[in-house]
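Internal tracking record. Fields below are filled automatically when a chain is submitted to the structure queue. Please do not edit lines marked as system-generated. If the sequence contains nonstandard residues, flag them in the REMARKS field before resubmitting.
Queue: standard
Priority: normal
Entity type: single polypeptide chain
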Amino acid sequence: MSALKQFFIPRAIAGERVRLLDIIRAPYFRLAVLTTLAGTFAYFIGLKTPHVSGTTAAITAIVSVRHTFHDSLKESFLQILGVLIGGTVAFASMKLVGFNSIVVMLAIFTCFIVARLLKLGEEGAIAIGVTVILVVGPNASTSTIEQRFLGVLLGTSLAVFVSYFVRKGTPQSRALTAGIEQSFAMSALLNAVAKSLTENDGVVDPKLAKRWLARAEFIASEIDEIKLAAESALAGAAWSPAIDHKEALAVVGQIELTEATATTVVNICRELVLTSGTSHQLPALLATALAGVLSATAEVINDQAEIAEDSPSEPQQEELDDWQDQRAKAIKELRNLDETQPLLIGGSILRDAEKITEILS
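SYSTEM-GENERATED OUTPUT FOLLOWS
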């Protein structure tokens, strides 16, 4: 069952059992179904329409579908431009020397140059290369090239259309929701750390500390991907009517706050890994005080995430009286310490907690 959950993305599974609704909502499944439909309809329409290549349309549709509408629209436009340039070079070469391996070589290499100029990356170069070979392949004439190019237009149009339905909501709203989920995950992690410190009188189990660190690093890596999606939405706002620029900018700001918070949470977990399993355990009173600070910090993260649901990148405005009280208790315990190592670790954890509250408020 866990392998099946992993296949459909773990966070899309609501409970212990995989439901039909979970499968339908899974982005991978939706992408597979919609890409299949795009390719099938492109082939069918091309087959039934005079002067349009159904095979070219189907292949172009498959390689042009993206997770988001604005990405597909951008990629399709650039792919058509790339095919025009690459196809022109290949067609001119073919008129000079006929269709042979030299023409294929020039066509493919030209596609990589064009993809570099258009900033499409390696995958974009390969997609253009496939399409160019389809358009100016063997037995090509002016009429067949026209049919194949019209197939490219048909395939990219259908790809753009189905890409709108791959994921629900706007790109910026999806990025915001995903970022808020990670904020709640960080809050839960800090609460778990605080509970362990309190219950075990400052003794940190090495295995548990490593799991905390692994969890924090996983959250940080998820936020990196979410930030890329948010920045992509912001870039798309320049030309996509479906994306509000001001809203997308606020979401990027929110994800940046979440990213900075995650980096600091990772630092806290690293400090706990260093102190775990050594003779320099945190004294019980200091551990309890730090647990209070971490719980209060988790509450700050939680509050800011709730605010962000309606007002992205809006700082947490409430008074931090509880957090300040917990901080004062931790400072008092730090001043009573004689051992250097617990003093350094405790001070570092406290400073990281302060940094989080500064970031979010």
